[in-house]
Amino acid sequence: MSDSLTTLISKVQALLLDDGTRFTTATVTAAARLALAEFNQRAPMQTDTILDVIADVKEYDLSEREATALAISNVLEVDSDGDDDQELEYDAFNENDFVEFRLRTALSSGKLRVCFSKPYTVNGLDGEVESTLPAFWVTTLLSGACFWSLQIRSVGRVETINLNQDVSKNLIDAKRYYRQVFDAGLVKAAARFAMVGGRGTAWNDSWHGWGQ
């Protein structure tokens, strides 16, 4: 199981050699939120869900089943007799900030397997009750949270009287290190493969079907 927000805060403070005086719970919470947002933008969770086919209907949405869905990567007709699901031609689009898709050809019955991406969550952050980020990637998230904690502290010192200018320099050096580690982890996380199929253009795109 991945770390909760409370655990992440403790680990960030430990990495920055702080007891919560300089890098408070509020600061690290804000930093964890920013780091998680970056992770989700670059390497969100890839998952799937099963929908019942609605006879002769082409348009489907995930709002009731998966309101946090970010993007659809594939739609398949489920093989009820085995493991030979068939990819379908579809067009994905957004409507009212929900992810929807339109089948090129309506089906009369059966089930659809919809592959899509969604954000990872951290237990205790923004009301979430589950940590879904795999433990292996927690160190990457920690690096991002450390970077953003240092960035927030740097911003807080901009208009204060800096009696020791070395502090600002040291903050920059520390930020550079954690930014590099975070970016390296994001590159590796983003290199994971999703099940991709169908076409990427929407049916109402002005270039839809061009050149065919």
Account of the 3D structure:
The protein has 212 residues and is α+β, with helices and mostly antiparallel strands. It has helices at residues 5-15, 25-42, 138-156, 165-190; strands at residues 45-52, 59-61, 71-77, 86-87, 90-95, 98-103, 111-118. A 4-stranded antiparallel β-sheet has the order 1-7-3-4, with no helix packed on it. The protein has a 3-stranded antiparallel β-sheet with strand order 2-6-5, with no helix packed on it. Helix 1 packs across helix 3 (138-156). The mean pLDDT is 88.
Write a concise synopsis of the structure shown.
The protein is of the alpha+beta class. The protein is 35% helix and 19% strand.
How is the topology of this model organized?
Blueprint: H1 5-15, H2 25-42, E1 45-52, E2 59-61, E3 71-77, E4 86-87, E5 90-95, E6 98-103, E7 111-118, H3 138-156, H4 165-190
Antiparallel strand pairs: 1-7, 2-6, 3-4, 3-7, 5-6
Helix pairs in contact: 1-2, 1-3, 2-3, 3-4
Uncertain regions spanning at least 5 consecutive residues:
none
**How widely separated are the two ends?**
48 Å
Widest sheet, order of strands:
1-7-3-4
- The whole-number mean of residue pLDDT values reads 88
Task: Calculate Rg over CA atoms.
Answer: 22 Å
Tell me how many strands there are: 7
Give the overall shape: elongated
Class by alpha and beta content:
alpha+beta
Keyphrases for this structure?
212 residues; alpha+beta; 2 domains; 4-stranded antiparallel sheet; 3-stranded antiparallel sheet
